[in-house]
Amino acid sequence: MTDKHKLDTRCVHSGELKDPQGSPHTPTYNSTTFAFDSTAALLDVVEGRSEGNLYTRYGMNPTIRSLEAKLASLEGAESAMAFSSGMAAEAALFLSHGRDGIICIGDAYGGTLELLSEQLPLLGINTHFLLGSELTQLDSLLSQGKRLVFFETPSNPTLEVFDIAAIAEQAHRHDAILAIDNTFATPINQHPLSLGADIAVHSATKYLGGHSDITAGALMGNKKLLNPISGWRKNLGQVPAPETATLLARSIRTLAVRVRQQNESALAIAKAMQSHPQVNRVLYPGLESFTGHAIAAKQMSGFGGMLTIETVGDGTTATEVVDRLKLITIAASLGGVESLATQPITTTHHSLSAQERSRRGITDGMIRLSIGLEDTQDLIDDLTQALQ
Ligand code: PLP
Question: Which among 258, 275, 272, 254 is positioned nearest to 378, based on CA atoms?
Answer without folding.
Answer: 272
